[in-house]
Design goal:
Layout (H helix, E strand, L loop, with lengths): L1 H31 L3 H12 L4 H7 L9 H27 L23 H14 L4 E3 L4 E3 H4 L19 E7 L3 E5 L6 H9 L4 E10 L10 E11 L4 H16 L5 E8 L2 E10 L15 E10 L1 H6 L8 E8 H9 L14 H4 L3
Parallel strand pairs: 1-5
Antiparallel strand pairs: 2-4, 3-4, 5-6, 6-10, 7-8, 8-9, 9-10
The structure holds phenylalanine.
């Protein structure tokens, strides 16, 4: 009795194996065929009266009744597949798609070219504009001490920007002089570092870097970019600051644009201003986009004497100005763009990025 069961299983699996092998070998052979005649010959070789498949199927009788349906289903499936592939190959042969002939003069398919991210494009353009008037691009740490981000910039310990609502604090033991470790919340943290690097004025730097703040909504991403200008020398005054903005606005946004300074407050500049630029659409007349004809561009001011002191520069001898603003915002203002959700900039969705 045991022998019999063994026999049944063995027979069934053998037939299954043979069917699968025949299918595989036939498909390999079929793929090589390039003429209708050869494809027809293969069909006969399989399904003709003495064809391999037909012969194999005759063996079905030898298989015990109980196993027959399973093998029968498999055989049908294989037959259907082979017939389908054969008729597909016949079509390819008929359309001459398998020909060996190659037209070397036919134009190729051009590879899809990418381009720089819009933020990188803006950074290079801004850098070029400032380099033309003698600024040098600098880079300072993104992971920064509280001292450079706040204290050295005349920001008291209880300043609201130092709350963990506004700044990312890193869970590391604080340093006695430098304070805690933060992710730099603005490029102003490069100001005192630049004074230390230079030793003494003149200083004319443009620091463009990533900044971090814990905000995540349609108009904020936790990582964004700012550029920061710092100029320190003897006799620097507000007219230099204003002239620099006039120059930048005309180079970056266009000759017909004007700027204005509006009084403001920053801890690290005195006096402080917000700089506005005339709207690119209504040219200052007032429209739906800008309301009154002006758009806010950036924060700026004359470097506070305490900041100069923190950088070991004598405020009685030297003065300077500083400004800082967002790269993403500047790009959108130039293009007259209103991106509904700023987070798209960093989602790496190619359909979004290839538009620019
Ligand atoms: N750091 C300020 C901000 O992030 C901008 C600023 C830079 C203002 C330099 C004045 C001088 O809003």
């Amino acid at each position: 009795m045991f022998d019999k069961i063994y026999y049944v299983v063995e027979k069934a699996t053998n037939m299954e194996k043979e069917l699968n092998e025949l299918e595989n070998m036939s498909l390999v052979e079929l793929a090589k065929l390039k003429s209708d005649k050869d494809v027809n010959a293969l069909y006969l070789k399989l399904f003709g009266q003495n064809g391999n498949f037909t012969k194999l199927l005759k063996k079905l009788k030898e298989i015990p009744q109980s196993e027959r349906p399973i093998i029968g289903i498999l055989a049908n499936k294989i037959k259907k597949n082979l017939e389908e592939k054969i008729s597909k190959q016949k079509k390819l042969v008929a359309n001459n798609q398998l020909s060996d002939w190659l037209d070397v003069t036919a134009p190729g398919t051009p590879p899809k070219l990418g381009h720089l991210h819009i933020v990188s494009q803006t950074i290079s353009e801004v850098t070029r504009i400032f380099e033309r008037i003698g600024f040098t691009r600098r880079r300072y740490p993104e992971i920064e001490w509280e001292w450079y981000s706040f204290d050295s910039l005349n920001m008291p310990v209880n300043h609201p920007a130092r709350d963990d609502f506004e700044t990312f604090f890193i869970d590391l033991p604080p340093n006695l002089k430098m304070g805690k470790v933060v992710l730099s919340p603005h490029t102003s943290s490069g100001q005192v570092r630049e004074m230390e690097r230079a030793g003494k004025p003149p200083i004319r730097m443009i620091n463009i870097a990533k900044c971090y703040r814990p905000n995540w909504d349609i108009s904020h991403t936790p990582m964004f970019h700012q550029f920061e200008g710092l100029v320190i020398d003897k006799g620097i005054n507000i007219t230099h600051l204003k002239g620099t903005f006039e120059y930048f606005a005309k180079e970056f946004f266009g000759k017909d644009r004007k700027i204005r300074l509006r009084p403001f407050h920053f801890q690290f500049t005195e006096p402080s201003f917000e700089v506005d630029i005339t709207c690119g659409f209504c040219k200052g007349r007032g429209c739906r986009l800008c309301k009154e004809g002006w758009m806010e561009l950036c924060g700026s001011g004359m470097v506070h004497p305490n900041v100069l002191k923190a950088g070991k520069i004598d405020p009685m001898k030297y003065t300077g100005y500083a400004f800082g603003w967002g790269v993403e915002r500047t790009y959108m203002m130039k293009q007259g763009l209103k991106i509904d959700d700023l987070r798209l900039l960093y989602s790496n969705d190619i359909r979004f990025l290839e538009q620019f």
